[in-house]
Design brief:
This protein has one helix at 2-27, and strands spanning 34-42, 46-51, 54-59, 63-65, 71-73, 90-102, 108-116. The protein is α+β, with helices and mostly antiparallel strands. It has one domain (2-116). The longest helix is centred in the first third of the chain and has 26 residues, at 2-27.
């Protein structure tokens, strides 16, 4: 029972941290993130997308736009995962917003903050 509580606490902290990162990025000026098209490798509920020599990652919760232009995911819809990132596959040509977020005093982390599943 203690282990389940610990796992739940860690998952909650990760979820809150991901929402906080998304909020900071969303409220930043337009220089806080960039739109990219890259190839992604998708796990169960995580993805890594490569643009040039930079890999952008996301796990568990991400805001996304479905094929009909409807916003999904994020804090209000955290159980949904982008349909254009099917589990355990490679997805080519995925459009996403990426940001460099602080990851300590002298480091940054390349993070996916939004995925666009509309057909372009």
């Amino acid at each position: 029972m203690r282990r389940r509580g610990l796992v739940l606490a860690i998952a909650t902290i990760a979820l809150v941290g991901s929402f906080g990162a998304g909020y900071v990025t969303a409220t930043a000026n337009s220089k806080g993130y960039s739109i990219f098209v890259g190839d992604c490798w998708v796990g169960e509920k995580e993805a890594s997308c490569t643009v040039g020599n930079t890999g952008y990652g996301v796990s568990e919760v991400v805001a996304w736009t479905d094929e009909n232009g409807v916003g999904r995911g994020g804090p209000n819809d955290s159980v949904e995962w982008p349909t254009c990132l099917p589990s355990l596959t490679e997805a080519k040509g995925v459009r996403f917003a990426g940001a460099m977020l602080p990851a300590g005093p002298n480091a940054s982390e390349a993070v996916i903050v939004w995925v666009d599943c509309r057909r372009h």
